[in-house]
């Protein structure tokens, strides 16, 4: 899905947008942000959201690509450095 990624953080709100939009960021095994295209991020977010319809998508979630587990993201929102709140 995203080469080198270990975790994908997914939300229904892209930073800087006021309307809902599937959004994803990828992180490597050290927790460093991996640059992905908007198309990659949107495709990954849509796939994860559709695969886990039971999740509360009003909050960001992390998908661990090594275990396949999905859980609420540790941070309630993306950090300021990432363009979040």
Describe the model:
The protein is an alpha+beta fold and 85 residues long. It is 16% helix and 22% strand. The chain contains one helix and five strands, in the order βββαββ. The protein has one helix at residues 38-51, and strands spanning 7-11, 23-27, 33-34, 61-64, 70-72. The model is unreliable at 76-81 (pLDDT under 50).
N-to-C terminal Cα separation, in Å? Answer: 27 Å
Rg calculated over all Cα atoms: 12 Å
- What is the residue-mean pLDDT, rounded to a whole number? 86
Task: Return residue spans where pLDDT drops below 50 for at least 5 consecutive residues.
Answer: 76-81
Q: Summarize the biggest pleated sheet.
A: 5 strands, antiparallel
Sequence of secondary-structure elements: EEEHEE
Helix content: 10-25%
What's the total count of β strands? 5
Count of individual helical segments: 1
Give the helix/strand layout:
Layout: E1 7-11, E2 23-27, E3 33-34, H1 38-51, E4 61-64, E5 70-72
Keyphrases for this structure?
85 residues; alpha+beta; five-stranded antiparallel beta sheet; 1 helix; 5 strands; 16% helix; 22% strand; globular
Summarize the structure.
Helices cover about 15% and strands about 20% of the residues.
């Amino acid at each position: 899905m995203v080469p080198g990624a270990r975790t994908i953080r997914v939300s229904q709100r892209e930073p800087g947008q006021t309307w809902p939009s599937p959004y994803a960021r990828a992180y490597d095994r050290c927790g460093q942000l991996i640059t992905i295209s908007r198309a990659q991020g949107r495709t990954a977010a849509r796939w994860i959201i559709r695969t886990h319809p039971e999740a509360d998508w009003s909050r960001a979630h992390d998908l661990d690509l090594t275990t396949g587990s999905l859980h609420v993201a540790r941070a309630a929102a993306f950090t300021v450095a990432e363009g979040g709140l």
